[in-house]
Design goal:
Belongs to the peptidase M20A family. The chain is an alpha+beta fold and about 475 residues long. The chain has two domains: about 260 residues, Aminopeptidase, CATH 3.40.630; about 200 residues, 2-Layer Sandwich (Alpha-Beta Plaits). It is about 30% helix and about 25% strand. It contains eleven helices and 26 strands. It has an eight-stranded antiparallel beta sheet. Strands 1-2-6-3-7-24 form a six-stranded mixed beta sheet. Strands 4-5-26 form a three-stranded antiparallel beta sheet. Helix 1 crosses helix 4. The two termini are about 15 Å apart.
């Protein structure tokens, strides 16, 4: 039977399964026994494994860190790596972020495109290949991660206990084929402040951002008691009219003034698509006139070295290559009070550069201001040559199923493809479609969901026949 007809026969199941999975708010939570990333992340993992068993596959839960669903036989293994955790939903949604509601042919909800819809598409693609009776001479394993949006502790744990696939793909990027992914470096810029110093303009604390890999949409600065509230509010209003910054001011308890910077969420791999609320706050505070306390000097350093920049130019990081393009930088989190300042940065660097070269450039700037640099996480770049059999096969499948030209692209995003050798990102966002991952009102179009399932079914069949 034709694979596409089989997939169409699953249409209602694919839609319903995607809705049910999106309805689970699988943001990382407090660890519990057997549930290392919290109750809701475990619920998502259990849901998909249960669905896999119901569809006739062998499944395994690896201590709540990850799981897999598989069929086929042979010495070689095709791995398809997806994830079930999501970033926090943020604010300002038109539809409930965990409603899985359908509007205008789209399933809305956090994780709909990143990466729950594609996970369901792969699962039913596997079912279609198995039902079709196409001869399979390799194992096909869908690996379900649960910590992709944070530290990848899931796959680190999983691959210490389970076989590593010989080659694979991850449906967590864009079509046609992503064969190059930039290196990802998360660092913290930190400085401890001497006791007894006070901000000359009354800053008590600053906080904002949810994760390094998300462009922050909110940053708060609290001005303490004793600040000239009328002057402060007037100065901010004048600054807003001149700069176009989106700033809100309200009176807090204890005679404090709360200043809120409003930005636009986006994925850190494309920071230019968002509006960084932390950077906007730093520039606003600098424009108000910072003093010379250690806290204010730290704020001024961040404002001058980063501000609203997304290319790292003032940090000496304006780098690029032909394979993967320009370096990007996102100031994702900040925490400043009278004792310490800490800013967390996400850097995506071109594939031809090395981690140590990036760090050396950062140290040159940070050391001059007495700011410490702490490496939080690093993932090396990914590159699979275009003449590799995997790339050539997926190009063929994509062109045949869509009627569109197939080509390779490079991204700043970090997919699970880099977790194994000989792997690429393949879908699930089609050319010309907006990138909704990590954004409010995230969705997947139902017809795109179905086309993904068809493409993945043909890809699996071609790669394992």
């Amino acid at each position: 039977m034709d694979l596409n007809h089989i997939i169409e026969s699953y249409r209602d199941e694919i839609i319903r399964s995607t809705q049910e999975l999106v309805a689970i708010p699988s943001v990382e939570g407090e660890p519990q026994p057997g549930k290392p990333f919290g109750e809701d992340v475990y619920r998502a993992l259990d849901y998909v494994l249960t669905l896999g068993r119901r569809l006739g596959f062998e499944t395994k839960n690896v201590d709540g860190y990850a799981g897999h669903i598989e069929f086929g036989q042979g010495e070689k293994m095709l791995g398809i790596l997806t994830h079930l955790d999501v970033v926090p939903e943020g604010s300002g949604w038109t539809y409930p972020p965990y409603g899985g509601e359908i509007h205008d042919g789209r399933i809305y909800g956090r994780g709909a495109i990143d990466d729950k819809g594609p996970t369901i598409a792969v699962l039913y693609a596997m079912k279609a290949v198995m039902q079709s009776g196409i001869p399979v001479n390799k194992k096909v394993r869908l690996i379900l991660g649960t910590d992709e949006e944070s530290g990848w502790e899931d796959l680190k744990y999983y691959f210490k206990r389970e076989a590593v696939p010989d080659f694979g793909m991850s449906p967590d990027g864009r079509y046609p084929i992503i064969n190059a992914e930039k290196g990802i470096l998360h660092i913290a810029l930190c400085k401890k402040f001497s006791s007894g110093q006070k901000s000359s303009i009354g800053i008590e604390k600053i906080y904002g951002g949810q994760r390094p890999n998300v462009v922050p949409d909110e940053c708060i600065c609290v001005f303490g008691p004793g600040v000239d509230r009328e002057k402060l509010i007037k100065d901010i209003e004048n600054l807003k009219s001149k700069s176009g910054y989106t700033i809100e001011v309200e009176l807090g308890d204890r005679d404090t003034v709360i200043v809120k910077s409003i930005g636009q969420l986006a994925h850190a791999s494309m920071p230019e698509k968002g509006k960084n609320a932390i950077g906007q706050m730093l520039l606003c505070l600098s424009a108000l006139g910072l003093g010379y306390s250690e806290m204010e000097r730290f704020i001024a350093f961040l404002s001058e070295a980063i501000g609203m920049q997304v290319d790292g130019q003032s940090m000496g990081l304006a780098l690029e290559d032909q394979l993967s393009g320009k370096l990007t930088l996102n100031l994702g989190m900040i925490q400043v009070d009278s004792q310490v300042g800490r800013a967390v940065i996400d850097i995506r660097y071109p594939v031809s550069f090395e981690e140590q070269e990036i760090l050396a450039r950062i140290h040159m700037v940070a050391d001059m201001h007495g700011v410490e640099v702490e490496v939080l996480d690093h993932q090396g770049p990914l590159y699979v040559p275009e003449d590799h059999f995997l790339v050539q096969t997926l190009k063929k499948v994509y062109a045949e199923q869509t009627g569109q030209p197939a080509y390779t692209v490079a991204i700043g995003g970090g997919t699970y493809a880099r977790a194994i050798k000989n792997a690429v990102a393949f879908g699930a966002v089609f050319p010309g479609k907006p990138e909704m991952a990590h954004q409010r009102n995230e969705y997947i179009e139902i017809e795109d969901l179905m086309m993904n399932a068809k493409i993945y079914a043909h890809a699996i069949a071609e790669l394992v026949k």
